[in-house]
Every structure is written in C-alpha cells, then in structure tokens.
Write a structure and sequence with these properties.
The complex is a heterodimer of chains A (263) and B (123). Chain A is 77% helix and 0% strand. Chain A is mostly helical. In chain A, α1 packs antiparallel against α2, α3 crosses α4 and α9 packs antiparallel against α10. In chain B, 31% of the residues lie in helices and 15% in strands. Classes of the chains: A mainly alpha (263), B alpha+beta (123).
Chain lengths: 263, 123
C-alpha cells in the first residue's frame, strides 16, 4: 500500500482553516468563534483517543475488548436517538426502544456479514468488525430516529383520529396502521436516497477511504456495495422493529391510546 | 360510540365505508361517497359519521350530541333513523343532549347532572 503519511505539520496547516473560520465568524459577528474552536479541539482529541483505543484493540484481537467497544458504540448511538426525539417515551422505553432496535438490526447483520461473507479467522477480526459495526450503527440510527420521532409526533397530533377509529371498534393495530406505514416509509427515505445517488453525486466515505489507502477502485466498489446492502437491510429491519414496538407501546392492554407514556 | 366531533382519515368519503349504507336515510345524495372529505360541512360529517357507526351494527349506542349541527329537518331524519335502528336491532341507546324536548322524544328514562349530582328527571 502506498499511503502518504501525514506529518504533524500537515495537520497544523489544515488547522489554520479552522482558525480562519473562527476569525471569519468573529468579523461577521456570528458568535460562533468559541464553538468553532471547541469543535475543532473535540475533533482532534476524540479522534486521537479513538485512534489509541483502536490501536490497542487491533493488537489484541480479543472478543472481550471488542464487545466492550461494541456496547459503548451502541449506547452512544442509543443516547443520540433519544436526544433527537421531540417526544420520547418515558422511562426505560425511551433509551430501550432505539437501542434495542439497533441491537437487533446492526448487530445481527454485522455478525452475519462477518461470519458468512468476510469469513475471517477469527470472525471478529477488529479491523473489519469495528468499522462495519460503526457504519451500520451510524446509518440505522438515522432510519430508527426518523421512524420513532415521526411515530410519536404524529400520534400526538392525530390523537382524535386514532381515538375515533378505536371508537368505531378498530383494534389498536388497525387504528394506527396507516400512520405506522407512513413512519416506516419516512425512516427508509434517507437510505433509499443514498443508494440511488451513490457514485453520481458523492463518493461514499468508505470507498473514498479505500481508494486513498491505495486499493484498486473496483475492490473498493465491491466493499461499498456490500456495506450499502447491509445498511439497507439493517435500516429496514431496525425501522420496522422500532416503529412496530413503539406503536404497540402507545396502547395499553385494554387498547387505549396512552399518550401519557410520552414525555 | 359517536363522539361530538367526527374524524376522517382517508381522502374520500367512500373509503371510510366497507359496505353499502342507505345514504338517503340521512338526507344525502348517493354521490356523496365520491366526495373529498374537505368538501363536507360539519352537518354532513355528523350525519355520515352516524352511518359509518351503524354499519358496524352496534348493540349499544353512545351518542354525544348527534344532531348538534343539524337543522330541524335533518334532525328529524336522524331521530327517525336511530329510532328504527334501535327497534329493528333491539339495541340500547345512551343519548347525550342539551335539548330536553329531543330527549323526551327519544329517551326514557332521562337523567341529568346538576350540582355534582346525577339524578333521574321526572317528565
């Protein structure tokens, strides 16, 4: 591989762009200078830390360390899902719904791909497992967040419609059925967009990385197609699961709409 | 159960019905089934909501002001429809209204809530 190693000086040059942006925001009175600088520092520190962690994990190839990392990634993504909600579920359901759906979709599909497609020995080779899981979590997160957010918000707005349907004797699943379909559709729009424009508008990040690292473009393309399909499957599974479970949670055992279960 | 304000979730009236109903019994023309929901007045919605409810053949009717938006002519039609439904199906009916003379036509016994008390009225 013919990677051109970056020297610290190279990064210092690049950082001058961030300082320039901070200066610009100062001149334009955007009141963003502080945030720009902090964000720049965060990028540097967080990425170096994760670089160190990855170095340790890659040197060990130990399932325990890998699992710890995976759980940390999952919880970080789950927390992000809750934070994006306007009306999250109360209590453990808030964190549990998104996290559970991501666990179901991202983890199963990543493990399946590692075991049956990549076929490393051992299958959990961190060089593959961690980036795969990261991309799966990052992308299924979008679908799940959009799905749940839309579900809870539209249930809130369409309370009267849902209750009128219950009054006409429809069961909970029928009463919220149309709304649920819309939410699942909404959750799948980003990945459908990404798949449709892949390569036309932007080169996907993983492919770009492989090309920069000196891999033949067609090899990079194959990996990108694999990961795209995994993401599509994972987003579909995760969105359906989270919207379905979430819609069930909106009704109690007597099939009453329980908006009080939302914050 | 018929709420005071009905809700409609599909684009056209006909999509809310799963079997043929007697539209003329509430004084509407048959082509109302092809109308978009936003063309309906509140009175038309109220009459259609009642028909939509009756297609389920409920044994107990809970009606919240079922004629609140209707003129006397249509009120009479709705009362007639409900009376014949109750008789033919042997259904029970609980009718909430502010119109005492209507209650006397439609219900027996009549209760009222006054000063936090629920009491039977002697008519």
């Amino acid at each position: 591989m013919n990677v051109i190693s970056l020297s610290p000086l190279d990064l210092v040059f690049a950082s001058s762009l961030v300082f320039l942006l901070a200066l610009l925001s100062l001149l334009l009175k955007l009141k963003l200078s502080g945030q720009v600088l902090i964000a720049g520092v965060r990028t540097t520190v967080q990425l170096f830390l994760i670089g160190l962690v990855l170095k340790v994990i890659f040197d060990q190839t130990h399932l325990g360390w890998l699992s710890l990392m995976a759980v940390f990634m999952l919880l970080a993504a789950g927390r992000e899902v809750v934070r994006r909600q306007k009306r999250p579920f109360k209590g453990w359901w808030g964190l549990g719904l998104g996290t559970g759906a991501m666990l179901l979709s991202s983890f199963t599909i990543t493990v399946l791909a590692l075991v049956f497609i990549i076929q490393n020995d051992p299958w959990y080779m961190p060089q593959y497992a961690i980036p795969f899981l990261g991309m799966m979590l990052g992308n299924t997160m979008n679908g799940i967040t959009l799905g749940i957010d839309r579900l809870t918000q539209s249930a809130w707005q369409q309370k009267a419609v849902i209750e009128n349907r219950l009054m006409l004797g429809q069961d909970w699943s029928e009463a919220i059925g149309d709304l649920r379909r819309d939410c699942i559709r909404g959750g799948l729009i980003p990945i459908l967009n990404t798949m449709s424009i892949a390569g036309l508008v932007s080169l996907p990040g993983m492919m770009t990385g492989q090309i920069l690292a000196g891999n033949p473009p067609l090899e990079a393309v194959k990996y990108q197609i694999l990961i795209m399909f995994m993401i599509a499957g994972g987003t579909g599974l995760g969105t359906v699961a989270s919207v379905w479970l979430g819609s069930r949670r909106l009704f109690d055992s007597r099939e009453r709409l329980r908006l009080d279960r939302l914050k | 159960m018929l709420p005071a304000e009905s809700q409609w979730w599909y684009d056209e009236v006909g999509d809310h019905f799963y079997q043929d109903v007697d539209i003329e019994s509430v004084g509407l023309a048959a082509d109302v089934m092809d109308w978009p929901i936003n063309r309906l007045s509140s009175g038309e919605k109220q009459r259609l909501a009642l028909l939509r409810l009756l297609q389920n053949k409920p044994q107990v009717l809970l009606l919240d002001e079922p004629t609140a938006n209707l003129d006397p002519d249509h009120t009479g039609k709705v009362e007639q429809l409900l009376k014949s439904y109750v008789q033919s199906q042997g259904a029970a009916m609980i009718w909430v209204s502010h119109d005492l003379s209507q209650l006397q036509r439609m219900a027996d016994p009549i209760f009222r809530i006054e000063n936090d008390r629920f009491e039977r009225m002697s008519v």
